[in-house]
Amino acid sequence: AQTVTQSQPEMSVQEAETVTLSCTYDTSESDYYLFWYKQPPSRQMILVIRQEAYKQQNATENRFSVNFQKAAKSFSLKISDSQLGDAAMYFCAYRSGETSGSRLTFGEGTQLTVNP
Amino acid sequence: ETGVTQTPRHLVMGMTNKKSLKCEQHLGHNAMYWYKQSAKKPLELMFVYSLEERVENNSVPSRFSPECPNSSHLFLHLHTLQPEDSALYLCASSQVTEYNSPLHFGNGTRLTVT
Q1: Which residues in chain A have their CB less than 8 angstroms from residue B50's CB?
Q2: pLDDT for the residue numbered B54
Q3: How far apart are CA A96 and CA B108, in angstroms?
Q4: What is the pLDDT of residue B61?
Q5: Which end of chain B has fewer CB atoms at under 10 Å, N or C?
Q6: How far, in whole angstroms, is CA A69 from its chain's centroid?
Q7: Hey, of B45, B57, B99, which one would you mutate to test binding to chain A, going by the most A CBs within 10 A of its CB?
Q8: What pLDDT is recorded for position A37?
Q9: Is the peptide bond before B102 cis (omega within 30 degrees of 0)?
Q10: Gap from A88 CA to chain B (nearest CA, Å)
Q11: What pLDDT score was predicted for residue A77?
Q12: Per the omega criterion (within 30 degrees of 0), is the bond before B69 cis?
């Protein structure tokens, strides 16, 4: 079974600075997808960014980018120019590309605080 | 109109009560999910409905009973719950035929069992 580990329960960053959230995963599959979700106090899980394992290029969405290291099974999220609205719980998630369905395996989450 | 709507937002129930959580998606997706989110734990997948058929149960206790009458609606019927069932219950939907389709979540129902 796949597992996802987020080793940082809490992180903080100053507004306008850059922060990196760590995620590692364990899988024997070669085809899979990785996601970062954000959960603000409103509780709704919001997709931040996604990465297909077969793509070597790191995904980027505006101020959010990932560092995907397939061999190391690492998938970190970098937030540049942090804003107060970035404060939330961030979850890393894994989805198999070899079995049917869209079920995700989540990490335990990292609580990000943005200081003004 | 949000993509995935959950009601109620909060629910307090006794261990002998029967209640239901409701989820509705307006995204045209063909798969729906129930997740349980407890403090300090990863999200736990409870049920998956794909094309209106339940495809995964994940060994959830029988006091939780899902119902998916159509591709847009999903219910979670609750009865004789335990205090440890107190958690945030999240509903999600996706397009199962698209391999990189992310899950779209609702705002969740905060359940407290007294």
Answers
A1: 100-101
A2: 79
A3: 25
A4: 92
A5: N
A6: 13
A7: B99
A8: 96
A9: no
A10: 14
A11: 98
A12: no
Question: A27 to chain B nearest CA, in Å?
Answer: 17
How many interface pairs between A and B have CB atoms less than 8 angstroms apart? 60
CA dist., res. A54 & res. A7, Å (int): 25
Do A108 and B31 lie within an 8 Å CB cutoff?
A: no
What's the CA gap between B4 and B72, in Å, rounded? 9
Q: Do A29 and B93 touch, CB atoms closer than 8 A?
A: no
CA B17 from centroid of its chain's CA atoms: 18
Residue A35: closest C-alpha in chain B: B102
Decide the pairing of beta strands B104-105 and B87-94: antiparallel
Q: Count CB-CB contacts under 10 A for residue A28.
A: 7
Q: What distance in Å separates residue B12's CA from the closest CA in chain A?
A: 18
Segments in chain A below pLDDT 50: none
Cα–Cα dist A23/A39, whole Å: 16
pLDDT < 50 regions, chain B: none
Cβ separation of B99 and A33 shorter than 8 Å? yes
Average pLDDT for chain A:
92
